[in-house]
Amino acid sequence: MPTNADPLDLLLLPTWLVPVEPAGVVLQNHGLGIRDGRIALIAPREEAIQHPALETRDLSGMLLAPGLVNAHGHAAMTLFRGLADDLPLMTWLREHIWPAESRWVDEAFVRAGSELAIAEQLQSGITCFSDMYFFPDVMSELVHKHGVRAQITIPVLDFSIPGARNADEALRKGVALFDDLKHHPRVSIAFGPHAPYSVADDKLESIRTLVAEMDIGIHMHVHETEHEVGEALDKHGERPLARLARLQLLGPRFQAVHMTQVNDDDIALLVEHNCSVIHCPESNLKLASGFCPVERLWEAGVNVALGTDGAASNNDLDLLGETRTAALLAKAVARSATALDAHRALRMATLNGARALGLDDHTGSLEIGKFADLVAFDLSRLAQQPVYDPVSQLIYSSGRDCVRHVWVGGKQLLDEGRLVRMDEEQIIAIAREWGEKIGSKH
């Protein structure tokens, strides 16, 4: 068992350290020490440099924060980036995306698209993400290989999907993958029933039974559009969230993605069952799906996290940009300039995301004992000067090009903006090959 006398593996000395918990705190001229993949020291610089360390990195002009948590995405769909833009959701899905998936999606597609997405997310400061897509076993291999952290959700729909002939087969494969990975330090499994309109009651009841036995999360698109809610009222006589409550799916591990259509009854259900909401503002804006009332949810005590959604509807995996959009949009929706300030926005993109995925004991904030999942943002450039509040400057004045270093579990995966364990040129070349093939047939 290591002691405080043992040398640190790495000592980082940033200009600003933002732990996220406690809320609103900025520590200036502090150091953070890592030992055995976890945060072992946070102390004023003068005290920190007294600790022996195998390596010390000076991060002058940089803000050190928890790695960003992208709480909703479809990684492999990055290969469909820009394929069918400027269309409403159901037209986009039914006439373009679903036919393209039917034609192209196989294990090779998922591998290439997911590697592209992992690389982009690392360069964007994302250390942990949730992925909902076909062939989840392929993504689990890539997460293991490339050193990132992820929740992998098992897609379940009423009809055949790539990799599963029906919902029962998808559930069986999900249970097997969970059994294989339940002790993995960086991979967690959840079930991902696509949406209330695409999964019948009997399948949802099967999922409810399994998640209770396995103690895992449910990740689901809910109340994404006004049409979805209206159709549910016509078909079931109740709103989708109320139906899920009746089927006993709601609870602390339920992750409701989108929630652009929210009334007082919906908020009461979310609060009663302690559910998390995952807000995807840019995808919702681009598809004209509606506005998630972030400030109302926050004031009610609902945990609200952030997701990029897939690059096919965003069109990037830039969670820092997503956070800026979320902060600005929240003010407009609430009609209040004080809604979702910069510090709370950063919390949404870090600790709230970890909490939504059931990982807040391990990541999402800079606290002693948590995994050293870190990102260093460079705030030294011209367009960021002067710096009064570094968190405000990060959210409102910075882009993902300011991401300089990324560590997951104490292992560096991005160094001076360069991928450490991935071949960027090869990833680009493979993505271009897929683009030429898909584009010639679309």
UniProtKB/TrEMBL annotation:
NCBIfam families: PRK09045.1
Keywords of this entry: Hydrolase, Metal-binding, Zinc
Function per UniProt: Catalyzes the deamination of 5-methylthioadenosine and S-adenosyl-L-homocysteine into 5-methylthioinosine and S-inosyl-L-homocysteine, respectively. Is also able to deaminate adenosine.
Stated family: Belongs to the metallo-dependent hydrolases superfamily. ATZ/TRZ family. Belongs to the metallo-dependent hydrolases superfamily. MTA/SAH deaminase family.
Taxonomy, superkingdom: Bacteria
Cofactors that this protein relies on: Zn(2+)
Domain Amidohydrolase-related: 64-412
Cofactor note: Binds 1 zinc ion per subunit.
Binding site residues for Zn(2+): 72, 74, 221, 309
Entry protein name: 5-methylthioadenosine/S-adenosylhomocysteine deaminase
Family annotation (InterPro entries): Amidohydro-rel (IPR006680), Deaminase_MtaD/DadD (IPR023512), Metal-dep_hydrolase_composite (IPR011059), Metal_Hydrolase (IPR032466), MTA/SAH_deaminase (IPR050287)
Molecular function GO terms recorded: 5'-methylthioadenosine deaminase activity; metal ion binding; S-adenosylhomocysteine deaminase activity
Enzyme class: hydrolase
Taxonomic source organism: Stutzerimonas stutzeri (Pseudomonas stutzeri)
Catalysed reactions, as listed in the record: S-adenosyl-L-homocysteine + H2O + H(+) = S-inosyl-L-homocysteine + NH4(+); S-methyl-5'-thioadenosine + H2O + H(+) = S-methyl-5'-thioinosine + NH4(+)
Binding site for substrate: 101, 194, 224, 309
Enzyme Commission (EC) number: 3.5.4.28, 3.5.4.31
